[in-house]
Model the fold of this input.
Amino acid sequence: MIGKAQSLACFVCLAFLSAGALAHGFGPGGQPWGYFRIPDLTEKQKSDMDELWSQYLKEVLLKEADLHKAEAELQVALASESPDTAKIDNIISTISALKGEIFSKHVHFVLQIKKLLNPAQAKWFSMELISNPHLILQRHMMDVPRQEGGFQGGMPQGQQPPPMPPQGIQGGSCEQAPPPAQMPAEPKKRAK
Done:
């Protein structure tokens, strides 16, 4: 059994080691998504961004919960023995509306961030948005620490994904193209 002194020492060590992590926010350098990696932010800008991020998450997480609920309702409706088409269409409309609201909130969040920036930072941020359009399209990228070689879970720097097989419309049909014909082997020469 561990004595009280050992327990206290373990707790103090654990608290000391975790203090650095708890003192910072999420993301590299304790910044939410590195504060979009925007250079030379003031403490006021960081504080305002944290406030916007907190408000944004509260609104979007509620919408996402409604979206997941509607998607589950759609699965149940589709799995029923006699699906009600009108009910399914209504659920689809709800899902589409929720996705639109979430996307709109994300775009407006990005615009609010841009308003906090000075002209040089705003120019840099605009270029970052152009070179990384997924920053606008995916809210979840805010939660993932970005590494120099790309986002976590991506391909390592310098590597490309394997080539995909040919697909799509070939010759006016929706079938995959047949595999390329193999060249016949050269006939063996007869020995004399």
